[in-house]
Amino acid sequence: MVYDVLIVGAGVVGCSIARELSKYKLKVIVVEKGEDAASEGASKANSAILHAGYDPVPGTLKAKLNVRGNEMFEELCKDLDVPMKRTGSLVVAFSEEEIKELYKLFDRGIKNGVKELSIITKDMVKEIEPYINDNVIAALYAKKAGIISPYVFTIALAENAAQNGVEFSFNSEVVDIKKKEDVFVVKTPSKEFYARYVVNAAGVYSDVINNMVGAKPFSVHPRKGEYLILDKDQGYLARTVIFQVPTKMGKGILVSPTIDGNLLIGPTSEDIQDKEFKATTKEGLNKAITVAKRSVDKFDVRKTITQFTGLRATPDTEEKDFIIGESDVKGFINVAGIESPGFTAAPAIAEMVRDILKDAGLELVEKEDFNPKRKPVIRFVELSDEEKNRLIKENPAYGRIVCRCETVTEGEVIDAIRRPVGAKSVDGVKRRVRAGMGRCQGSFCGPRIVEILARELNISPLEVTKHGRNSYILAGETKKFLLDKASELLKKEVYGNA
């Protein structure tokens, strides 16, 4: 089969493009090296923020697409049944010099078309954020900023794209691309795909994919950011996304509520070379804590429940802007260097890529039966007692709590596995229903999740992985392991004394 469009990468950008193209009578496939949507790159590990759009330089793609993307989220989240919240954001100043920077950001935001933007006094800041550091003297307040779960949104895009005919091929790392006449041959370790157009949305690997096809080279390097997530009993300390005055390395270390009620701190910012280095460090986490306490000094770092690292795809171009457009290889579209505010910009990037493909010769005929809405997600903990009782009568699996920390039921886990582009791993379940994201980090629910995955996927528990590839949860049956170990020790004792 020759696809009309092949998209490399199932992050938020790749899945946004897939969903946009699913509105048309096209054969589209997304090829992803990971085992799931949002399983590898920045889409699973970022600040989970909808940026208002005051930070990008006016006239850049970042500025234009940030503001447009921000405007699109309300309708998208309603259609895709994804929780989001317009919390607003603050950029706080601690000196007169930093107040000057606030006015620069304000002017930039006005030029970018950001609405509901203002500079407010300390008293007004304290009304919005009662627990903010007393040393704050002013802030830039952007009401259009918000919070969301990046991986939940990305998975929702993938589900809706699949409902509308887009195919997904996971565990399919692209190792070579060649163009033969008018068709691209995209090679993975197990299969070759053929497509008339290729969209490169491969995140930190977008330069590698670009260079495979022989297009004009560019370079993308990873910028590492380390984060901490604190328990939900610390979530009250921030109502908005609290930034400090940005630097040349980015928007700085923030303090923010999450859509699920936790407190998020980070990210640090460090340019590295290794595109796979995602370890947290003592130095990085300590820096995040120290800087964050400048904004909110009352959080209890002992309430940290997990840490993680995200890698931003930073382009080595003079403009430091998104790289979006048809390359000098006809039909090969780059969507590269999509660092912050890339998540917010993703829906608008999808519209732009659609138009680029059209200009490149792709015929776009709208489907009469496109369905913009995905099947609603049952979130048991949010239901009324009456709704819970009715649901349990219909399906007893919703009466069995699997994850105590987040009150996740067996019915929700089963649904996460059976949905389009369903979960295939423990982390896949975790991203969809939060089982394992609470205080105990999966200590209680982990074995039960493995059991349900094995049953639903009709595989052995020994085949269940944490996040695909060789990340197996179990090494073998305990009884057999103990018998083998006992036999080994007996042999050593018998023959060792001979």
From TrEMBL:
Residues 4-355 form the FAD dependent oxidoreductase domain. Residues 401-455 form the BFD-like [2Fe-2S]-binding domain. It holds the Pfam family Fer2_BFD. Signal peptide: none annotated. It comes from the Bacteria. SUPFAM superfamilies: FAD/NAD(P)-binding domain. This is FAD/NAD(P)-binding oxidoreductase. It comes from Caldanaerobacter subterraneus.
